[in-house]
Amino acid sequence: MPTTGRHADEPDGFADNDLIGRMLLRDDRNAFAELVRRHQSRLRASLRKMTGGNIALADDIAQETLILAWRNIRSFRYEAKFSTWLYRIAFNAWQSEVRKKHETPMDDEILPEPDTVASESERSGIKRDLKRAMEDLTEGEQNAILQCYYNDLSHEEAAYVLGIPLGTVKTNILKAKEKMRVKLRDYASESDVGQGVAA
After folding, report:
1. N or C: which end of the chain has fewer CB within 10 A?
2. How many whole angstroms separate alpha carbon 53 and alpha carbon 105?
């Protein structure tokens, strides 16, 4: 049988929960290294959105998150996926950083890129309109949108990450969607009027 240069007991083929078990039972640092390898890119990308593109701050919070995960792995209860637990730690670390600096927690970088194949100017206009619509959302609504639509978490997972009741997440999502729907419809009307005048 050909070898790949890896030892048979290395953790790359295990599920996250199995890796956590190896960490707890064997103090297997390779298992944690594998968890970090699997999740750090998405974690850093999420934090970059939360910090408004501040790469250094996002990387610092990501590092703090991973250290906290290592130190607190015994508190992981398997009630959520490891990645969801990690997002909760990251969100709390980010909120703590925001409170320390008294900065506005959200920026336009929270918004997912439009899925349409549009010209650069159309994408720019869509992004501008989304940013303007997001500005009218409460912090709770913005956080729910970030977790559910950027981090692609279920409502239950977002509730866990945000540390709020499931009903509150659902309410925040519904209110946010309605506010954004109205704002985006208004912006589209303004755009149509502007184009009609130019014609």
Report:
1. N
2. 12
